[in-house]
């Protein structure tokens, strides 16, 4: 099963992708997490990506597309995968279509997690992330068992650099300009499923399971 998670920054793509990954046993591929890991490891890709990420802008398509094209050929992807944060522009979606077509493959579901901008700012301020394993928490809505410590791996939780309110506003603008058009794009391909992301985390997941099947 191959799934794309669409949605504004902070809509809950990562939170849901982790649960989907656990239930259906397919990997979560988060381009944002891959870039953050590169930044942490001081790679050349990380240095390039950081400039854009800190400004709330998209990393240029050519840096993202090859990376994903390669990642989905890994062994753990043979039964499917969840693309979390890719594609997020029309050129990226077209490139993905082209790559999959050349492999006689296709995406099965595009899940659009719908959350209005008003809810987003509040969510981002309370988010805590594990730079080690990619798990995401919220101090109010989804707290870790021990404050500041990841339930999964014991890693120390951090505030993401791009969660400052000014940067979140810019990310929302970029989302509306460049990523939201993908809703129409996938609606035309007839694989778009919309999910109400304003509900509680478990309710959102239940809606997703309804779509994907048990
Ligand atoms: P990325 O890491 O993908 O960030 P994003 O898309 O902005 O989305 P987030 O990860 O911020 O939010 P999310 O939807 O995963 O929400 P989460 O589950 O954490 O990308 C970062 C940057 O990398 C981009 O700005 C760009 O520069 C670059 N980049 C990445 N991919 C790229 C690409 N393909 N092309 C170009 N550039 C790219 O939830 C948010 C918070 O809300 C958490 O605290 C969570 O606990 C809480 N929460 C979740 N669900 C609920 C709920 N139902 N109710 C209450 N709280 C909830
Ligand atoms: Mg995320
Ligand atoms: Zn962790």
Largest sheet: 5 strands, parallel
Bin the helical content: 40-55%
Number of DSSP helices? 9
CATH topology of the domain at 2-27 and 74-116 and 173-212: Rossmann fold
Write down the Rg. 16 Å
What is the strand arrangement across the widest sheet?
A: 2-3-1-4-7
Mean pLDDT: 95
- Say which CATH homologous superfamily of the domain at 2-27 and 74-116 and 173-212 is assigned: P-loop containing nucleotide triphosphate hydrolases
* Secondary-structure-derived class: alpha/beta
Q: Which shape, going by the Cα principal axes?
A: globular
Spell out the helices and strands N to C: EHEHHHEHEHEEHHEH
End-to-end distance = 13 Å
Summarize the structure.
With 214 residues, this protein is of the alpha/beta class. The chain is built from nine helices and seven strands; from the N terminus they run βαβαααβαβαββααβα. The site of zinc ion (ZN) has 8 residues, from loops.
Task: Tell me what you see in this structure.
It is a single chain. The chain is an alpha/beta fold and 214 residues long. It has 9 helices and 7 strands. It has helices spanning 13-24, 31-40, 44-55, 61-71, 90-102, 117-125, 165-179, 181-188, 201-212; strands at residues 2-7, 28-30, 81-84, 109-114, 127-129, 136-138, 192-196. It has a 5-stranded parallel beta sheet, with helices on both faces. Strand 5 and strand 6 form a beta hairpin. The longest helix has 15 residues, at 165-179. The radius of gyration is 16 Å and the shape is globular. The site of magnesium ion (MG) has 6 residues, from helix 1. Residues 130, 132-133, 135, 150, 152-153, 155 line the site of zinc ion.
